[in-house]
Specification:
- The protein is 76% helix and 0% strand.
- It is mainly alpha-helical.
- The protein has one domain.
- It comes from Pseudoneobacillus rhizosphaerae.
- This is DUF2624 domain-containing protein.
Length: 85
């Protein structure tokens, strides 16, 4: 399953605003375009491993600083959907 994790992490690390909004809509996660833009910029600036609980928790804390705790919870819910096997 390592290849699966690598593909998902690569997608997370190269995500655009529109892609993030598309996935949010697909998984019924509420996020504004402004917050999606800031989050996508952050994701592209950091190497993220959403399959590592500690790394994902750190990422969610950073997203909370960028877009607020409610948005961070929603994004975490989206990431959990990505990591379900």
């Amino acid at each position: 399953m390592k290849i699966f994790e690598n593909i998902i992490n690569h997608k997370i690390n190269t995500m655009t605003t529109d892609e993030l909004l598309k996935y949010a809509k697909q998984f019924q996660v509420q996020i504004s375009r402004e917050h999606a833009k800031k989050i996508a910029e952050y994701l592209r600036s950091e190497k993220v491993n959403i399959f590592n609980d500690g790394a994902r928790a750190s990422l969610i804390r950073e997203i909370a600083k960028i877009a607020g705790p409610d948005t961070a919870k929603e994004v975490n819910r989206l990431f959990i959907q990505f990591t379900k096997q």
